[in-house]
């Protein structure tokens, strides 16, 4: 029972961590798959959790295909951004792609402690500074309405 890591060209990194802890006669396993490919192109079983770092939904058209796939699977998905403005843009992209949205961004307690300067405007930012999760629109025909949440303030340009 030890870690098993494999790297496959083009598919990212896979890791399987086995624990010797027995749970009701079974074995508790943790599998982690890391990929740089667009999510909608990945094959395999439905994941339990999706995490994306400095996602930039509005910067890549591939998110317009990946976000609907996450919506259809209803996988818990958390993302980070380097700025509040990026979080607002991600929320707008999620709304366009799925009709859903994102939770209000919160400061990420695990962000990089080093302040960086943006190349285009010298504004300070931190790697993974804010964290949010996807808020999926209710399935059609469920009659459920999403709970209203606070509207995040729009950052000044």
UniProtKB/TrEMBL annotation:
Q: Which InterPro entries match?
A: Mss51-like_C, ZMY15
Give the start-end ranges of region Disordered.
1-28
Q: A Pfam family for this UniProt protein?
A: MSS51_C
What is a biological process (GO) this protein takes part in? negative regulation of DNA-templated transcription
- Give the domain of life: Eukaryota
Give this protein's Gene Ontology molecular function annotations.
Answer: histone deacetylase binding
Could you identify this protein by its name?
Zinc finger, MYND-type containing 15
Q: Which organism is it from?
A: Mustela putorius furo
Q: Which residues form the Mitochondrial splicing suppressor 51-like C-terminal domain?
A: 2-116
């Amino acid at each position: 029972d030890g870690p098993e890591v494999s790297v496959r060209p083009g598919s990212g990194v896979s890791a399987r961590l086995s624990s010797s802890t027995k749970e009701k006669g079974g074995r508790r396993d943790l599998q982690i798959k890391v990929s740089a490919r667009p999510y909608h192109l990945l094959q395999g079983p439905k994941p339990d959790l999706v995490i994306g770092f400095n996602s930039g939904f509005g910067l890549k058209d591939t998110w317009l295909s990946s976000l609907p796939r996450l919506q259809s699977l209803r996988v818990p998905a958390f993302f980070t951004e380097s700025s509040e403005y990026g979080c607002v843009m991600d929320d707008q992209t999620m709304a366009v792609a799925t009709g859903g949205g994102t939770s209000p961004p919160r400061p990420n307690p695990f962000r990089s402690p080093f302040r960086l300067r943006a190349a285009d405007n010298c504004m300070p930012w931190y790697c993974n500074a804010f964290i949010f999760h996807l808020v999926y629109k209710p399935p059609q025909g469920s009659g459920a309405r999403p709970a209203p949440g606070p509207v995040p303030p729009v950052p000044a340009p």
